């Protein structure tokens, strides 16, 4: 069992980061958020971090719009390392992270995706699930590998798709489960009672 030193990357509202902060503050997760980085200057995730006294910063990722590469990637790794981060959490970070960052934190980069992977990788996955006619949707927390939303799965949670759902109502129901799934996955990592066997994350004990 070891305390996690987290670096959180986000682009938006930061509700997933908030669920991690809440789990740390109520003692259900042995972790500390060392730094929060956002690629959007006025992202709410930065306001939330400030409110909790967590070091946070805007990371200018130009000229790229959808990936973290080049000088911004180097700066990101440098900031994470100098902050003492051992585990990187992608909490609504709308960019593809590249092999250099993954190599700096081997098997220690986690992502949350609002779908039951491998169904509906990519963006607006809840809308894709609704339009496909799925009766069940959900959320996945997984290790990040070189692909998109493709690494070994740590936790999944399902939610029903209701007859009168809109993309917004379905996303809201998925988010309730996201906020349980991320702390749960981080707890598994913190307890260290798991092993990665190919695509499978085998959890030895909870
Ligand atoms: C979540 O739905 C997450 O699954 C997706 O982006 C959204 C981020 O929400 N990758 P928040 O910024 O954590 O509130």
Briefly summarize what is shown.
With 206 residues, the chain is α/β, with parallel strands linked by helices. Helices cover 34% and strands 27% of the residues. The strands form three sheets. It has a seven-stranded mixed sheet with strand order 3-2-1-5-7-8-9, sandwiched between helices. Strands 4-6 form a two-stranded parallel ribbon. It has a two-stranded antiparallel ribbon with strand order 10-11.
Structure characterization notes:
Helices cover 34% and strands 27% of the residues. The protein is built from six helices and eleven strands. Strands 3-2-1-5-7-8-9 form a seven-stranded mixed β-sheet, with helices on both faces. β1, α1 and β2 form a beta-alpha-beta unit. It is globular and about 50 Å long. 38% of the residues are buried. The site of 5-O-phosphono-beta-D-ribofuranosylamine has 14 residues, from α1, β7 and α6. 5-O-phosphono-beta-D-ribofuranosylamine binds next to α1, β7 and α6.
